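Data card: per-record layout.
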Amino acid sequence: MNKMSTKVSNPISEIFKYLAISILFMFIGFAIGMKFVPEYIAGLANIIVIILVIVMLVLSLISRKGKLPGSFSMNFVYLFTFIDGIAFYPILNMYIQDLGPTIVINILVSTIALFGILAFISSKKPAGHYLNLGLTLLISLFILFILTIINIFIGSQTISILLSIVGVIIFSGYVLFDISLIKHKENLGQLKEKNQLSIHVLNLYLDFINIFLDLLNIADNFR
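The structure for this 223-residue chain is written out next.
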């Protein structure tokens, strides 16, 4: 473990602080992408959507299966979210053009509200209350990944909507699970260093972004 890692006294509060900073880095990356990403790349938004969705699902699977280190520098989370924001520009630009900025902002606010409500519900439950969802969510996420790959070749709008609805449900479940896991680890005294919070910040960030992307896709397909 990094000996320079900062001690933490309130893990949940710190995790939400670092999550907010991570989302801010994502929007900074988006702003840079908007300024510097060439228009012809933005024109490939549909392809980039597919790539980013697959990448997000793969990262979610990898992190949930414990393939990522349990402790690493928060700077890696910030770097990832910053780069993700740059990659996010063509997609968000496409949705803004299709839906209009007002609807996109409303969906962002709705995502924040849903995320906040789920986090609040889980935080009020005893530590570990939703940990029993872990295996079901992991299997569901794996199936979602496979069906998403299949639908790339089928190209069904109906299936795309259904997968996005299922995606919102799965990652909403993961918000409940992740907060419950954080409380459980806090009770066990396993979250004493800043670097030990990084994986949880990353997981919550992935939950947030996947819910946001799925809600955007649902709205775009229903417009």
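Known properties of this structure: Residues 11-222 form one domain. The helical segments are 11-36, 39-42, 45-64, 74-99, 101-124, 134-154, 157-187, 198-222.

See the next section for split statistics.
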